[in-house]
Every structure is written in structure tokens, then in C-alpha cells.
Amino acid sequence: MIDIGLSKMALIGAVALIVIGPEKLPRVARTVGTLLGKAQRYVSDVKAEVNRSMELDELRKMKDTVEGAARDVEQSIQTSASDFQKDMESSLGEDFTPLGEPSGAQELSSVVPAYKHPGKNWRLKRGAMPQWYKARAGVRTKAQSGAARVARFRPQKFH
User: What family does the database annotate (predicted)?
Assistant: First the structure.
């Protein structure tokens, strides 16, 4: 970049003082400072974006190599498993069934029903609460009209 020392800065300041004048120099200095700050922030943002894109490219390359290695390992495992299965079938004969397929798979699926979400039946949930808990917690168990509730809790007159 530009090599600006103390002597060069003093020279630039003296020329600015003569050209601009002492009244406008502080305002011009503030403006130049804000513009230089904005320029530095812009340059740092650009540098950070370039670094991020370079790291992203490196990560993509690394991901591709790892995925390729994983595919190679998977293929080798599948070929060795198929070779082992063929060897086992040839040595055991027709009695051999692979691990992924149990012998009674069709019977098992017909016995076990499919899962059904129970839903949100709040009446059923409230009915499952014990009666003693409802009484202690003050849960109303019977519906009453407003007038009936007032009549029920109206104080009795003494005669």
C-alpha cells in the first residue's frame, strides 16, 4: 500500500490548512475520516467474503472426496456381503433365509395392526382422571346453569 510517514502527514496537513482554511478544516477532516472508515469496512467485508467463498470451495472438495470414499467402502462391503451370502447359500442349501427377511414376515404383518395416532380426545382424558383427584382439585363433574349455581351457594336464612 501507500507508505505514509509522519513527515508526509505533516506536509499534507499544512497544505490542507493553507488550501481549505482553518474554518472548514475540522469539517473536512471529519468527512475524510468517515469516508476512510467506510472504505476500510468495505474492504474488510470483501476480504471476509472472499475467504468464506474459498473455505466453501475447500469444504465442497473435501465433501466430494469423503462421499467418494464412502461409496467405495459401501460397494466393497456390498460385494463382500453378496459373496458371503452366496457361499452360505451354497454350503447350507435351501434352508438359508437372509437376515433382512424373516421366515414368517407375511404372518407377522397380518397379526400386528398398523399404528393409529390416538388423537386429542380431551373428554376421554378428563374421564380417565380419578374421582378423588377431581374432588380435591375442584374440577366440576356435572354441568349446572348459572341460576342453579347461585341457588346452590346462596346462604340459608335462619327463621
Answer: Belongs to the TatB family.
Instruction: Select from 1, 53, 9 the least CA-distant residue to 29.
Output: 9
Closest CA to 85 of 96, 73, 101: 96
Look at residues 130, 150, 134 and name the one whose alpha carbon lies nearest to residue 142: 134
In angstroms, the CA 84 to CA 102 distance is: 18
pTM metric for this prediction: 0.38
CA distances from 104 to 4, 96, 101 (A): 86, 13, 8
Question: Does residue 103 contact residue 97 with C-beta atoms inside 8 Å?
Answer: yes
pLDDT of residue 29: 86
Residues 6+ apart with CB under 8 A from 126: 139
